[in-house]
Amino acid sequence: MTYASAYAAWRADPEAFWLAAATAIDWVKAPTRALNASRAPLYDWFTDAQVNTCWNAVDRHVAAGHGSRLAIIHDSPVTQSQTRITYADLQTRVASLAGALLAQGITTGDRVIIYMPMVPEAVVAMLACARIGAIHSVVFGGFAAAELAVRIDDCTPRAIIAASCGIEPTKVIPYKPLLDAAIAMATHKPDICIILQRPQLAAEMGPRDIDWHAAQAGVTPAACIPVPGNHPAYILYTSGTTGAPKGVVRPTAGHLVALNWTMDAVYDCPPGAVFWAASDVGWVVGHSYICYAPLIHGCTTLMYEGKPVGTPDAGAFWRVMAEHKVHTFFTAPTALRAIKREDPGGTLPGQHDLSHLQALFLAGERADPDTIEWAQKHVGVPVIDHWWQTETGYAIAANPLGLGALPVKIGSPTVPMPGFDVQVLDEGGHPTSPGTLGAIAIKLPLPPGCLPTLWNAEDRFVKSYLTHFPGYYETGDAGYVDADGYLYIMARTDDVINVAGHRLSTGAMEEVLAAHPDVAECAVIGVADEVKGQSPLGFLCLNKGAARNPAEVVTECVALVREKIGPVADFKRACIVERLPKTRSGKILRATMAKIADDQPWKMPATIDDPAILDEIAATLQTIGLAKGHAT
Ligand code: COA
Ligand code: AMP
What we know:
Layout: H1 3-12, H2 14-22, E1 35-39, E2 42-45, E3 50-51, H3 53-66, E4 70-76, E5 81-86, H4 87-103, E6 111-115, H5 120-132, E7 135-138, H6 145-155, E8 159-163, E9 165-168, E10 171-174, H7 176-185, E11 192-196, E12 209-211, H8 212-216, E13 227-228, E14 232-238, E15 246-251, H9 252-265, E16 274-277, H10 284-296, E17 300-304, H11 316-323, E18 326-331, H12 333-342, E19 359-362, H13 369-379, E20 383-385, E21 387-388, E22 395-398, E23 415-416, E24 422-425, E25 438-443, H14 458-466, E26 472-481, E27 487-492, E28 496-499, E29 502-505, H15 506-514, E30 519-529, E31 533-542, H16 550-564, E32 573-577, H17 590-599, H18 611-623, E33 627-631
Helix pairs in contact: 1-2, 3-4, 3-5, 3-10, 4-5, 6-7, 9-10, 12-13
């Protein structure tokens, strides 16, 4: 099947297309219908099916005689260790933890927050929830306690599974104090916390805490519990325009069908091959392509605990690919930019045997041409940009290698995948002509696996995604289609920025800054960053009469964002300004500010320790009439 015939087959009969894809899944009760449109514009898929995700990701491979195949390779330069887990071993571990959850009274439909670094136990915990139909919500380790508390209150978990610490290249991050602080802040309290003690830093245990191993001692391993097709497999919080994160709900059956389909069609990665998504289980890429898709498809998933550079050097990724015979590699452009900066001549890839590598996939942010060209030249495999979102859970647009590679156009994530009728719309909701910029929207219904709603927030779901362009899902991205039907994703239409492949809300940062007692008004914009793509920059107007040293206020504000949102926000720069540019109706002209900022010579790299560049920012802002004092 070619891309053209697959897309045409889907267009001709979407339900038949997805029912055919569904035959690759083991059902307890197979679906008789694909789409349920009875609540349009809200849609469900495979509603009358009964299925279990963990069975499909683990047990069925053991039952098919592949128990000795590697399911997980954990390569952790930060702990100087490697762990290999077969499918049979994974089944034992997952059934045991699922048994422990059942023994604690956690059951189908209960929520479980997982707050863990990149250790195999994070995937074991996700699958243990799936095994008993508990709904997990993984929270990225770089978020602060307050962000964790918001998620605890929103999804009201019965249990939290956490590790004692995470390990960054130069420091050990104690997770348990953050967890304790979050629970103290939250109104809702979980019944129990299951804690994985890591040897690098043991956590102090409290009355609610149970040790990971002790919780499993003597429990009966759990069998897979079937759930209905539209049962939520997980909730994953992502940034929206305001500070309150959106709880994206992932439906069980559609998730299984669609992810399994992508492994052949998009990635061309056969069962048994090694798939490496260099991301984190806390992000959607980690959910879909570290945990679920490779395992559902019977591949080996590689979990990497470390950074692309500095652990030990910028050759780390190529060493891992060679050593573990990686077939398909997936990361964010920011990781390649970090490597390219250390190895501009591209000498390091050639020092490793990359003969097993078939393709390098990029997503999470716009892939800049320089980075793609560097990778094409020095890695020697197809470099495939593809575009997706937490909301969809897999690629909306890609170059589907399994359907026959299409010509690569640098700067474009290629073409819409079957399931996605992508349109570029003008303000009035009319399709634009080729080459004309507009809002990117997807004609409803979205395909299986995409979010059917937001957790506990159906109104917000409708308002955020379905209202602006009736009949469409609004992606929040802007771009255009060229005459060949190739898509170009250019920018966000909302206040979301993308820092090192991490999606962040400038609105959330502004809410934190506005709470500083001396800040009267503020705006945060994303400015260009050589490695991270974008970096947040704050503009602060101080209260009249706030006789403060500007540098001190900025330092306090930087600390406040780190404390309230977390290090992941990477908020390190702000400057004091006299006023913010506004429209006549009082709206802050963020886009104008970002444009001015991007046009300036002080693009990056700049950190709070970079006084020369920060002085330049102040001078530039002074010349455009914005700055009052010192920028830091
Ligand atoms: N737990 C605790 N803290 C974490 C963390 C975690 N899991 N992950 C990141 N942090 C901290 C970092 O230590 C850093 O703290 P600092 O300000 O004290 O230095 C801060 O959060 C910012 O981290 P990061 O954005 O990762 O910056 P970095 O300079 O450490 O690394 C890259 C930059 C580009 C190398 C890194 O972001 C990377 O490898 N990205 C890969 C892309 C990716 O995973 N994308 C996800 C979607 S595909
Ligand atoms: P997230 O939900 O964290 O995966 O972020 C999704 C957002 O990242 C999208 O809405 C885009 O703004 C951006 N994004 C993801 N992939 C790409 C890509 N290939 N090209 C351009 N932007 C991308």
